[in-house]
């Protein structure tokens, strides 16, 4: 009995997945107003599900950091995270109409507190971390260019050619042979390799998508 | 409202062809038990990884990428979930699970469900901890910084990253490489491939990420997928060659 119920449950999930996927796929290929409307409805439902999932995600973050504080692991950072979260979240969910008029500019998702956090905290931090990438690239390149194999040697030669070909200094040296060599490396072997990899990724994505669509891969059930 | 009709119809035709091929190869794969695969270092290292790290009393960090389910990177996230399923099955038998970091709340829920069901199957549902799956942040940069913190934990002995990654990969890959821990990485982004090669000896190249199911679970459906990819690749090469010949001599 339990086995039959489980099979029925699985079948219902597959039918829902398959029909939703086929409708969305067809809505891109066939000019049909009902299909387009259905697709919009599915997108709206997805937004609602994502909103609930986000709430559960927030609870997960608070739980993980609450446990860290309890275990006294990285207490300071976890406390900062929770305080920063509350400082942005609480005014963010308040309606400007629900607070006294003189505080109404602070409340709401577009209020000055949320805007300040994004503009003066999150964006500069993002820029800072991405600027650190230059140093990470340097250490990664140092490790990659240690000649341990024929492939690493070829990579080193290609890198040197590209570096020399990118030099813009005019110090009486004719860099044009290096520039030509750099352009050849970038446009022929590098481009050919990248396109080959890209085609493989596209095929892999297509088949993986079909497995999900046909209910062969079911991350949502056994 | 709709773009030119040639493109969507051609896409639909390729999808229909792929579905037919998949059906045929799945039937064929069910009849055979021998699947000769070329060895891929990353997948070889993933097999039995949880058992080895559990013995040493340390942890495995699994990153499912900086994307989620429901966007254009769903297939890559799904490949990451396949790796998680394999790890969950490896570890649940002795109440051990990897530390999983995600950047998407829906992916978090699905990952938690996969871990829970693996524990449930082995009768150890009580040992399941929902905080083994951690939502870091939906923003790629913030995710990379938070997940880097997990990789830098002393007890992490291996770092597995399978899913979609952008430039932020380097922050994570370098963290593992500098600690000289075992790293297995795979992404569906072409630009990230050289960064992966520079930070890991066990990098999955391009579509190898999507072969996770075939290599780790040996399920006939996943093996059939590899055959479909191969057939489509041969067709694509033939089309390119014919197009080049026509363009050159036509």
Strand content of chain A: under 5%
Spatial shape of chain B: globular
Could you give the order of the helices and strands of chain A? HHHHHHH
Oligomer: heterodimer
> Please, what is the average pLDDT of chain A?
87
Average pLDDT for all residues of chain B: 90
Q: Care to describe what's here?
A:
The complex is a heterodimer of chains A (222) and B (250). With 222 residues, chain A is mainly α. In chain A, 77% of the residues lie in helices and 0% in strands. Chain A has seven helices and no strands. Chain A has helices at 2-29, 33-71, 75-93, 112-131, 133-144, 150-165, 176-213. The longest helix of chain A is centred in the N-terminal third of the chain and has 39 residues, at 33-71. Chain A is extended. By secondary structure, chain B is an alpha/beta fold. Chain B contains ten helices and six strands. Chain B has a six-stranded parallel beta sheet with strand order 3-2-1-4-5-6, with helices on both faces. In chain B, helix 4 (74-92) runs parallel beside helix 5 (105-121) and helix 6 packs parallel to helix 7. Chain B is globular. The model of chain B has no long low-confidence stretch (mean pLDDT 90). At the A-B interface, helix 1, helix 2, helix 4, helix 5 and helix 7 of A face helix 1, helix 4, helix 5, strand 3 and helix 6 of B.
């Amino acid at each position: 009995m339990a086995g039959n119920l489980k099979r029925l449950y699985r079948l219902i999930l597959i039918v829902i997945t398959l029909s939703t996927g086929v409708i969305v796929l067809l809505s891109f290929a066939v000019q049909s107003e009902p299909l387009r409307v259905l697709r919009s409805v599915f997108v709206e439902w997805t937004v609602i599900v994502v909103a609930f999932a986000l709430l559960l995600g927030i609870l997960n973050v608070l739980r993980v950091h609450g446990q860290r504080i309890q275990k006294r692991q990285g207490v300071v950072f976890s406390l900062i995270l929770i305080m920063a979260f509350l400082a942005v979240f609480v005014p963010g969910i308040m309606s400007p109409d629900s607070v006294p008029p003189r505080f109404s500019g602070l409340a709401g998702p577009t209020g000055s507190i949320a805007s300040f956090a994004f503009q003066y905290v999150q964006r500069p931090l993002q820029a800072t971390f991405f600027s650190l990438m230059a140093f990470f690239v340097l250490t990664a390149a140092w490790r990659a260019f240690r000649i341990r194999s024929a492939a690493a040697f070829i990579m080193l030669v290609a890198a040197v050619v590209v570096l020399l070909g990118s030099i813009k200094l005019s110090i009486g040296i004719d860099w044009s042979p290096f520039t030509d060599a750099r352009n050849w490396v970038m446009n022929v072997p590098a481009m050919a390799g990248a396109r080959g990899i890209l085609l493989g990724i596209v095929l892999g994505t297509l088949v993986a998508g079909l497995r999900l669509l046909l209910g062969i891969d079911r991350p949502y059930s056994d | 409202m709709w773009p030119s009709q040639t493109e969507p119809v051609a896409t639909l035709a390729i999808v229909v062809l792929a579905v037919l091929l998949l059906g045929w190869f799945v039937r064929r794969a069910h009849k055979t038990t021998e699947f000769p695969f070329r060895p891929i270092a990353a997948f070889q290292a993933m097999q039995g990884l949880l058992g080895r790290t559990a013995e040493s009393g340390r942890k495995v960090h699994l990153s499912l990428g900086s994307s989620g389910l429901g966007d254009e990177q769903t297939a890559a996230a799904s490949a990451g979930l396949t790796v998680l399923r394999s790890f969950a099955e490896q570890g649940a038998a002795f109440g051990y699970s990897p530390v999983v970091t995600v950047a998407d709340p829906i992916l978090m829920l699905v990952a938690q469900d996969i871990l829970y069901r693996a524990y449930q199957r082995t009768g150890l549902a009580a040992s399941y901890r929902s905080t083994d799956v951690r939502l870091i942040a939906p923003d790629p940069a913030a995710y990379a910084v938070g997940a880097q913190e997990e990789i830098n934990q002393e007890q992490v002995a291996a770092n597995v990253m399978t899913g979609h990654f952008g430039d932020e990969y380097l922050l994570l890959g370098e963290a593992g490489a500098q600690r000289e821990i075992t790293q297995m990485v795979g992404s569906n982004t072409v630009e990230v491939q050289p960064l992966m090669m520079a930070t890991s000896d066990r990098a999955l190249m391009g579509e190898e990420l999507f072969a996770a199911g075939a290599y780790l679970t040996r399920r006939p459906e996943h093996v059939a997928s590899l055959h479909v990819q191969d057939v489509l690749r041969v067709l694509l090469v033939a089309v390119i060659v014919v197009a080049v010949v026509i363009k050159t001599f036509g």
